[in-house]
Structures are given as C-alpha cells and as structure tokens.
Amino acid sequence: MAVLYLDALxxxxxxxxxxxxxxxxxxxxxxxxxxLQVEEGGEYNVDVTVHFTHEIAVTLVERDDPDPDDNLGxxxxxxxxxxxxxxxxxxxxxxxxxxxxx
Length: 102
Hints:
4-stranded antiparallel β-sheet; 66% strand
C-alpha cells in the first residue's frame, strides 16, 4: 500500500475572471478532500494524506455558484515513490498540484 501526500496547489491562472476561485480536490474513493479559496499567482498548502493501492485519480473542480461547476481535469497518480506534480489546464485555468508518494 502506498501513501499519497498532497502538498501544495499553485494557481498560475484562475478560472474566474473576477474574484477568487474555489477549487475542490477530489480523490477517487475519498470524495472531496480539500476545498480552497485562491487567487491567481498564489500557492496554497493542501496538507492531505491518503493511503491507496496501485493508482488513484485526482480531479480538480472549480466551484461556481450559482453557475455549474467547472471540471479542470483528472489525473491518475501511480504508486511510484517520489516527489512530483500534476498540471490542470482547462477552461482557461492553470493549476499545479505538488505531491509525494511513499
């Protein structure tokens, strides 16, 4: 069994044209594990730890109330040990999620 540590989420470009984004991080089988309020150019501590086997999907969704939420992408993280990051680029947004696997 592997351990996934979600470290930080960097908002390179926000999805919303005005105000803050509210990205929610979904981890397969665990649901929403973290929701943040972020501004363009900011980097935010995520501090989430989960156990998984073989691989786990991470989806980033930008909450838009009252409009429908925006799916910013889905990535699959393997149980290969090390420090890495995944990039989400959809709907004009650009996010980078750093993580490590042990």
